[in-house]
Amino acid sequence: MKNENRSKDKMHLRHSSVLRWSHLRLKSTLTTAYLPTIYALSTPPGTKSAIAVVRISGAHSKYIYHQITRSRLDPIPRKALLRSLYEPGKNNLLDKALTLFFDSPKTFTGEDLLELHLHGGKAVVNSVLRSIGSLNDRKRGIDIRYALPGEFSQRAFQNGKFDLTEIEGIRVLIDAETETQRRCALSSFNGENKERFALWRQQIVDSIAQLTAIIDFGEDTEIDDIENIFQGTKSDMVQLQREIRQFIKKIDKSSILQSGIRVVLIGPPNAGKSSLVNSISNEDISIISRKPGTTRDAVEVSIDVNGYKVSICDTAGIRSRSTDDIELLGIEKARKKSKQCDLCLLIVDPQNKPFINEDLKQVINTPEFEDKEIVIIVNKKDLLKNDLELKLVLDQVERELRRKHPVLAVSCLTQNGIEELIEKLTDIFQRLSETTDDSDPILVSQRVREILHSDVLYGIEEFFEFAGENGDVVMASESLRHAAEGIGKITGDSVGIEEVLGVVFANFCVGK
Ligand SMILES: Nc1nc2c(ncn2[C@@H]2O[C@H](COP(=O)(O)OP(=O)(O)OP(=O)(O)O)[C@@H](O)[C@H]2O)c(=O)[nH]1
């Protein structure tokens, strides 16, 4: 009898364990069928353009189509149809537009979706938006309203079309200004991250299942077997912890692509720093003058260098002899800026010896420069008589710096060597961001990064504490549950997901 009860207890425990974990495998089953039909202008508002696209999503999309086109026939799904659009109930022609209807569920939002490709004039767009809004009639159960920022994407998420990492990827893709930022978005947008997170979660859930077996069958299990199971889960989690840490390292490296690689130009007055900023950016950003000490303050601009977002900073020429207070302040700022940069370009004037003056040597010999990328650029190559003279200058510069940094020669006047310099910079940018031709950078939101630290890694670390000698199986598996739920928060598969939706969709524009 006693045995029978124990066996029943175990059955109950096992059943409750299964229930506890089953939600980890559940996908979002939310449906948006009960929500109002939404509409919005999906192309930029307030500007004149050839085409403007109004997007409509929800159960009343077809109704809107009928009312606004006066057509009794249903739209043919996925077929572009040219239709006249009228103000509902009036004879007022608004526009002739291309209409595209997608029927649920194979649409971006999962709902019926209608697109109106209008002529992109403000008055046309406003009249069509007003007409759609006028069809709202709650008393008759026709609930239509203008969409909130990111609401189309939110519906897509709620209907299981995308997970949160993919949705965040879409936002980054829209915001991408440079080629590498576009590549960054792909890891999330094309579902690579989603697969990675799903795999991690499965590994954790498998380990929890193993530990649950110990809890459920503990008394019937040999001590050796328990030890083996514990060891197995521990080594799986060691491996996973390593993988997650590497992933975080990579996203930290990739984040430089979003914020911009900080490049600072330093050098003696008149060496050609401002000229080089203009040559690299191909724009007239900095003032160039024969007069030494022209640049007195640090001038910082954001530019695109070969697909990389770069924040380039021109600084005051570094010399200690100046008596000008403003120039001295500028020199101090140049020193500070150079300490904060990712890459320092030291510009040398071949007409002035020593090429690297003591003030500059002092700057680059500070501890902050120890691991910094530094490139020495000998400018005004055009003033050197021949290759031999150039070689002598390059050798001398290398000697002065004890061959510690790469040296390149350019001429901002003739643009000779600028292309090679940009190639060299691109190599360094690749290294700094760990981007290569076969390895795309990874971008995840700050939200994801924080959850990886505070929930996933934290849960795994806590697991190791409880799984130590005389391990506490219940607490160890509880810690892993915390880690698995963290991944659920990242992808949106978790219970209590409402709290994160606001964070994810808040930065979207209307119409997305
Ligand atoms: N011959 C030649 N002259 C150059 C070259 N690059 C710049 N210069 C000239 O050098 C002078 C100084 O150039 P800037 O770009 O203002 O130099 P800078 O280092 O920013 O000067 P400061 O603001 O005084 O620190 C100007 O007269 C430029 O036209 C070059 O490659 N060849």
From TrEMBL:
GO terms for molecular function: GTP binding; GTPase activity. It is found in: Mitochondrion. PROSITE patterns: G_TRME. It holds the Pfam family TrmE_N. Residues 260-430 form the TrmE-type G domain. The keyword Kinase does not apply. GO terms for biological process: tRNA methylation; tRNA wobble uridine modification. SUPFAM superfamilies: P-loop containing nucleoside triphosphate hydrolases (SSF52540). Keywords: GTP-binding, Nucleotide-binding, tRNA processing. GO terms for cellular component: mitochondrion. InterPro entries: G_TrmE (IPR031168), GTP-bd (IPR006073), GTP-bd_TrmE_N (IPR018948), GTPase_MnmE (IPR004520), MnmE_dom2 (IPR027368), MnmE_helical (IPR025867), P-loop_NTPase (IPR027417), Small_GTP-bd (IPR005225). It comes from the Eukaryota. Belongs to the TRAFAC class TrmE-Era-EngA-EngB-Septin-like GTPase superfamily. TrmE GTPase family. NCBIfam families: mnmE_trmE_thdF (TIGR00450), PRK05291.1-3 (NF003661), small_GTP (TIGR00231). HAMAP family: GTPase_MnmE (MF_00379). This is ZYBA0S18-00320g1_1. The lineage of its organism: Eukaryota, Fungi, Dikarya, Ascomycota, Saccharomycotina.
